[in-house]
Amino acid sequence: MKFTAALSFLALLSPKAMAFQPVSNSLNRPQTASTSLFGSADEFCVGILGDLHIDPRVMEDYETGRSQWLNILDEAKTNVGEEQVSVVSLGDLGESKSVRPDETSELFAGTTECHELAADFLGGFGVPYDVVGGNHDLEGIDEFDTDEANLELFLRAHNKDGPQFMRQIAEKTLLVGMTSTIFREAKYTSHEVTIDQEQIDWFENVVETHPADEGWKIFVFTHAPPNGSGLRVLQENHVVNGCCWLNHSNEVQCRKFIELVREHRSIKAWFSGHFHLGQDYQDSITFPTIDPKLGPYPNRGSCVFAQTSVMRSGTSRDGRQQSRLLRGNKDGFEICTVDHQTGGTIRLDATITYRDNDNEVGVYAHSDMEKVEDKYFKVYSPSAGDSLHPPDENYIAYDEELIMEEAVTMDTKAWWKMACGRVIGMLNGNMIEYDKSTLAPLGLIVGADELVGKRVCIIDSGLDEMCAVDDVEIGMEGADCGEAEAREQAVILVDDNDGSIVVVQPNEDGSYWRKIVRNKMIRMKEVRREKAAKRLAAAIKKDDEKDDADVVSSWGPYTTTKGTAKNTGVSGLTAPAAK
User: Fold this and answer.
1) pTM for the complete prediction?
2) Nearest-CA neighbor of 241 among 527, 524, 520, 557?
């Protein structure tokens, strides 16, 4: 996707960069004729590092990457002044496995050794650095009993006063970052990036007290992107497991960030990592507005969202090794790629020009640069349209009931709205819930293993006639309808081959996507219990029995609509299969 616009070129760019061509980081690169502007109070340059996952056994890529950055940053200090150059790390600083497997099974990420090594590395760029914590930075679970103790170490190692940071990098220009502070106490997956309420309140105060109409410009840094960013180059496991967006599992907090972006136009850009995917795709950068001829208004305030890749080859999920370079002045800013596989060459990716304090124009510098072997998950995001555009072709409108005539395949694309406002759709054979405001994917409802080959039906559940379950507790008669919605619906899966019907029940909070991945601490304990069971099985097995025992776990999931639970067996797993 390209946008045509008249640009007021940034004075700090070289002629090559103006032409949207890759530029060397050579110190003798020719500069623009307006060199007198270099070092003015409004100019700045920031190096942005994605997930490092430092492994002390393989430091070569880090040393090479830093040496490339030193050339870029040294030149920037000469051109814009030392006080207006810095580095930001987007977190996940250490390898999430043992780095001495012959000696210990302790994970390296989150340990004292990890953060001290990361601080030493980040302190060697020759400019001040700021860092935000990611989902692995409190993973020192063998060394620290609590998230609080692990966070204290993180702050101390990186000389931080608190999990958030704010740096004035140029005149009326702020760099602002927030850290994930929950790992052991995560309600669901420990790999959700969770910004605590205190930081959210702090961030809201920052944007309220630095408004756009006073000329302030704010650049935000978090490990994961916020819901509503529009970034579509994602990892499928992050989408379906509920750890894709900031505060993903908390509906109110998850939506809070984009609401602040929409309200406060001083927020000009937001950088994130988390997905370990490259920067060669246009969907790794999204603009706050687009030409109405190309589609509906994206409703992202004045903010450009940018995804950041990784430095080390062993951590890349698509083979890229890249960082981001942000440089700007009073007229706007540009987002570039530093390619660590080509000697640290700089490629311009996007130029953003300010029209006024509240509006800007973005232009991509190149089209997608995909490789044949690329297998990233480019998530489908529904489009609800606007006053100038209808919803996309996959939207299904219906009045009373929705009965799909054809069975779902891996290629089926469709989405619809439930009467309660929830949004459900299908992609890659999966049934997915989408956020009702931003239409960003929230998580998996039904996997392709269960959905493909079945028809989907949305029907009224007959609330008026059947608002009581079979067994009513004495004294609670009529309570079943007490908090019911005005119109209740059922999501049904129909298998025409065997006649079976599955009711997809929503969660207790009304959402549909399955919070099926638990906190890592809980899962590790469960694995230890299963290993203990296998040891017991080996000790008591008879000579004629097979070596590997059949060990299964029981979690006591909901298996019935009855109000009294007498059976806990799972048919075909922990109890005989139902006939």
Assistant:
1) 0.83
2) 520
